[in-house]
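Appendix B: a complete holo record

For completeness, this appendix reproduces one full record from the ligand-bound portion of the collection. The bound molecule is pyridoxal-5'-phosphate. The inputs are the chain sequence and the ligand SMILES; the output is the full three-dimensional arrangement of the complex, encoded as structure tokens. No fields have been trimmed.
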Amino acid sequence: MVNEKELAGLSYDDAPKIVTKKIPGPKSQKYLEKSFTYESMARGAGRFPLVFKEGKGTTIKDADGNVYLDITAGVAVNSVGRCHPRVIEAMKSQMDTLMHASDLSNVRRTELAEKVASVMPGNLKNNCVSYFSQGGSGAVETAIKFVRKITGRTQIAAFHGAYHGVWCGGNSLTTGDQYRKGYGPFIPGVIHLPYPYCYRCCFGLKYPSCKMQCAHYVDYVLNTPYTGADDVGALIIEAQQGEGGYVPPPPEYFTIVKKACEKHGALYISDEVQAGAGRTGKMWCIEHTDVDPDMITWGKGMGGDVPMAGLTIRSDLAAKIEDQSQPNTFAGNAMTCAGSMANIDILTENDQALIKRAATLGELIKKQIKKGAKDIPIIGDVRGLGLMIGIEFVEDRESRKPLSGEKVGKMVMGMLNKGMIMVPCGRFGNVFRFMPSLTLTKNHATKAVEILLETASEL
Ligand SMILES: Cc1ncc(COP(=O)(O)O)c(C=O)c1O
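The structure of the chain with pyridoxal-5'-phosphate bound, as generated:
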């Protein structure tokens, strides 16, 4: 059991609290002007008008002292909340002894590798090796390289709506015009398949009468000589698509696709960078299915406040990778390893109590949103597993036309003015994502739903 009172103590309990006349306030405005002058606006947040000063659990204080409810968890990163006292303690004590150790073995790094192995699903559990990086992009980039070496094949299958990072290899797998247009050419040999997005099925079918045509299509593509099928080394897929719009496919989709991979000799990579680390109510999102992946890319919520990500692969596959073929100067920094271990401990202790709570709290939140959405015609769909909930906004339910960018912007600012940070994603940028830290209290969850529904009603 997770104690609500203890969770409340980890955040500013009186959030949200807006003290300036407008947002951004005067101090924030000054920082933003400097930021827009000296920082590249290619960054993810672009010109979002908020300047963080303090983070506490599921709440944030800006440079002017406004306190917000944070329903983003730093884009699914702060799984146990910001500045968790145990994470701070672990890092502080590590700072006194060792931080950088280059790519050599260090005590904390080896302990983390062992811990990661112990929390892996299925056949990977305690039967794997991990490669560490500072972000999910590094993990995906490494996966591409390893797949080619292991299988001797050159092609990789990915999915429409996928986000696997923006380095050259990962960017080739990632879809989304803003990441691609004018930046190519990318690596050759990438096949993009339709992701099972039932609300907007590209085959115009309805689940379950569709009989999972999209999954059988994957089998067809891997099997046809016209795609050079015997050259597909791996398929990389998110078990619930993140940036693509918080889309959870029917679980049997993955069973069919995994069988296709096995039949045609392609490895199965589950990209768990966003959906992993307990977010969906299980440690790994793929655990909602019966699929045993060959590799997992992970990041975000595994490190929480520290930059820690990795690629974990089955031990027999690892034997095919040459020693010293993928160095990384900052991998396995002892301080970030210590922080990440404390983070994973908090997530998984007491029989994964916090993760199990994410499943029940997520159901409660979805129920509350669905109930309120009945009277709000611009809410088209509410979906997702655990605390990875997507709320798809439309111009009207009949046409399902995505809500315009202008109105989405008004939603974002409307919520921010009420003291809540929630950001959109999706192919059309019209899906708001409820992705808080797993330590969000029930009180704050209810408050967040109220703000979301109130702002949507005002639109
Ligand atoms: C599924 C997935 N893979 C990979 C990445 C890239 O991770 P990073 O931004 O840490 O490099 C992301 C980031 O959002 C992601 O959601």
